[in-house]
Amino acid sequence: MSKAAAPAPIPSLEDDPCGRAKALRAIRDAIITSGSVTELDKEHGNGVRRRLRWSTADLGRLDREIAAAENRCLLKSGKRGRRFAVTPGGRGW
Asked: CA 76, CA 73: separation in Å to the nearest integer?
């Protein structure tokens, strides 16, 4: 009987920011390509068939973590980190 391989641990931001960014991008790709999407298919007695798909992933937070790791990776490799401009609060600009 073979056991499934345990997932590799995600490197910390302090120890290996480039490896962390790479691992988090792989996780995001798996989520987007239905790697962690749950699907329920149910047929009712009257012939109606319904399919429900959902995921509990927080892609916004995952994107922020990836951006932070990529920025730290740039700084660690001696390059200039990403910079963001300060803009007025309105969307009209």
From this structure: 5
Question: Which has the closest alpha carbon to 57: 89, 74, 76, 34?
Answer: 34
Distance from C-alpha of 37 to C-alpha of 59, rounded to nearest angstrom: 13
- The pLDDT, as a whole number, for residue 83 is 64
CB 73 within 8 A of CB 65: no
Total-model pTM: 0.57
What are 1-28's pLDDT values in tens digits? 445 455 677 887 788 888 889 998 988 8
Amino acid at 49: R
The sign of the CA dihedral 9, 15, 16, 17 is positive
The answer to whether 69 and 24 are in contact (CB under 8 A) is yes
